[in-house]
Amino acid sequence: MERRVDGSLARSTYHKKTWSGQYLHFKSFAPIAYKRGLVRTLFDRARQIATNDKIDKDTTVLYETLLDNGYPAKFVDKYARQRGEKHALLTVPRKSVFLCLLYKGDDVSILIKRRLNAAVNRTYHAAKLVFIEQSNRVPMPLRKGPIPAAAN
Which InterPro entries does the UniProt entry name for this protein (predicted)? Predict the structure, then answer.
């Protein structure tokens, strides 16, 4: 961070003196999703932190560092691009619909819930299923005998 002549602050990403520029090498035995995520995260971080006058320097340093770590230029260019903003969809709140089911065990219960949710979500977008599971009461034999007539 440095102060400009007009008194405002110019920000850029900070690296400690011990920073070596070593990241996950492109040819390392790691999923490609990790490598995509690394490039996206580093460039997103630079865009969030750096001010407009410092962003070019930060992205150039980052680009060269990734090339030194074996990343192809085309790969870095593709995943360093700024992604479009996600717009929040304004939706109507979903209404809870309570459904009482007999409990038939975990496997059966999960299967039934999944199928019912899929069917309801395809048809009624404004409904949210809430399941209430019950089991039948097991009849218990009477432990006590009948009340004697003399006790009344």
Answer: HTH_animal
**pLDDT value, residue 107:** 80
Q: Output the 3-class SS for the chain.
A: CEECCCCCEECCCCCCCCCCCCCCCCCCCCCHHHHHHHHHHHHHHHHHHCCCCCHHHHHHHHHHHHHHCCCCHHHHHHHHCCCCCCCCCCCCCCEEEEEEEECCCHHHHHHHHHHHHHHHHHHCCCEEEEEEEECCCCCCCCCCCCCCHHHC
Tell me the backbone φ, ψ of residue 101, rounded to 5 degrees. -125, 150
Q: Read off the pLDDT of residues 105-135 as tens digits, 9 standing for 90 and up.
A: 778 888 888 999 998 888 887 888 998 888 7
Q: What is the pLDDT of residue 132?
A: 85
